[in-house]
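Researcher: Please predict.
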Amino acid sequence: MERIYSEPSPVFIYHIKDLLEEKGIATIIKNELLAGAVGELPPTEVWPELWVVDNEDKEVAEKLVDDFIQSTKSRSLDWVCEKCGEQIEGQFNVCWNCGFGNCTT
């Protein structure tokens, strides 16, 4: 087994696990219950870890994870509301100022 990814969000880890398993890559998650040990252990040591079961899948899995992370970054660019001109952070798809949605960057 090989560790391919670790991060503090279990939701994100499970999403990546699902993406890899859709591609036929068997994975397991370790450390998913260690969050309670924060303070006694360094924070990064208790983050959930995603591991591939078959070492031969490691390179393909890492590429899929990298591609997915890059695609989420490109979707989260800041944008300007077409209706009121307000600057909005990329993770939001509705303007906080006027409520207008479906804005483009």
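Model: The first strand starts at residue 2 and ends at 6.
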